[in-house]
Specification:
Length: 389
């Protein structure tokens, strides 16, 4: 590396085992920075077994891997590690900038920092997490945002929330649209997942999402019920489970799903890896995305990458990300969701139109563009470290 290269520490505290938006973003980030240095020496801090999983099979001079202890991946372990152990690691590695990729930063560090705030969900849905975690997250999120040299976020919608809720000046916030993971840019041909879920030659809709209440699976269950009452088929696949999901909510969804009459059906696939989701996107009638709270919505970009038609809610950042690439509906209007599902299933030309419109936006969500923009923010933070308050 040239001597003029910046050194950037990326401490990835936490786990990558759950198929969540955080994992998707982090793995896409790691894949891209291993591919191209951009004049930066990256120090990647990650739990040792996870390093083995994400490290590519070649030696990269522009990357150093820093093993973190196993206990740093749990929620409590991450909090302790990030706030009490990480300050010493930052001092010893002496980076020019620290990039914190997941909503929180180390408060006891004076090194210039870039903080990615991907969501302020718990301000909208405080009941999704326990009271102690809610209090600690709000405290750390606000303090961290005010301490950060620069803040990046994935949409103009969340940028406005950071400004209004956390009282951060707009000039310190940069919107960087997420990039699609390379897994969704590949043309997968392995259809084993279709056989396992008994979906081969069987039309279906796809909703990849954790089973949290705000993701609003209930609207799709109600829409499928309406179609079944009319004798129409609507097979809807709920792909995913998520972390810290309330069992009572999942039990309710499964109970309501059992009430859907044939020929319609709700399938719970459980967690799927990106290669399996890739196949499901490619073969689905459409992506259904009725979430009531989103700062971006990774499945939208993933569906665009694979030319999958999109029906999405009018909530928060979703219309901004979909723009003209999909059909926008009120998240709670099951009648309208049923109507669009019926038309997409039965009108090949209509389905082709929305496939083309989704595809036309795919190049907006490339990871190399996202890392180029992030690199520019990191350089700005290194050159102007006094912005931190």
């Amino acid at each position: 590396m040239p001597k003029s290269a910046l050194t950037v520490l990326v401490p990835l505290c936490g786990d990558l085992d759950a198929n969540t938006a955080g994992r998707t973003y982090t793995e896409a980030l790691l894949n891209e920075i291993q591919r191209d240095d951009r004049g930066i020496h990256w120090i990647i801090g990650l739990e040792e077994s996870l390093i083995k999983r994400v490290k590519q099979n070649k030696s990269e001079a522009h990357i150093s891997w820093l093993p973190f202890p196993r206990w740093s991946v749990s929620s409590l372990g991450r909090l302790i590690f990030e706030q009490l152990r990480l300050p010493a690691i930052i001092r010893s590695t002496n980076p020019d900038v620290v990039f914190f990729s997941a909503n929180f930063l180390t408060l006891l560090s004076k090194t210039p920092s870039v903080l990615a705030i991907r969501s302020l969900l718990y301000y909208h849905y405080p009941g999704e997490i326990s009271k102690p975690r809610l209090v600690s997250r709000k405290f750390l999120n606000r303090r961290g945002a005010h301490k950060a040299t620069r803040i990046v976020c994935p949409s103009q919608n969340i940028a406005r929330e950071i400004n209004q809720i956390l009282d951060i000046p707009q000039e310190r916030i940069t919107t960087i649209l997420h990039g699609t993971s390379s897994a969704y840019l590949e043309k997968k041909t392995d259809d084993a997942i279709l056989d396992r879920l008994e979906l081969r030659d069987r039309p279906y809709f796809l909703y990849p999402s954790a089973l949290w209440e705000y993701k609003n699976h209930i609207t799709l269950i109600r829409a499928a019920e309406k179609l079944a009452d009319r004798g129409e088929k609507a097979v809807v696949v709920f792909a995913g489970h998520g972390i810290a999901v309330r069992n009572s909510h999942v039990d309710m969804l499964r109970r309501e799903a059992r009430n859907v009459k044939l020929p319609s059906e709700i399938l719970f696939s459980g967690e799927l890896d990106p290669s399996e989701l890739n196949v499901l996107y490619k073969n689905a009638i459409a992506l259904l995305f009725p979430s009531t709270c989103e700062s971006f919505g990774n499945p939208i970009a993933e569906a665009m990458a694979l030319d999958c038609p999109i029906v999405a809610s009018s909530s928060h950042a979703v219309p901004e990300i979909v723009a003209g690439g999909g059909i926008i509906l009120d998240a709670l209007d099951a009648n309208k969701w049923a109507g669009e599902m019926s038309r997409l299933a039965n009108d090949a030309l209509y389905r082709k139109l929305w496939s083309e419109r989704a595809s036309a936006r795919k190049n907006l969500y490339l990871m190399d563009r996202a890392i180029d923009e992030l690199t520019e923010v990191i350089r700005n933070a290194a050159m102007n470290p006094s912005v931190s308050s």
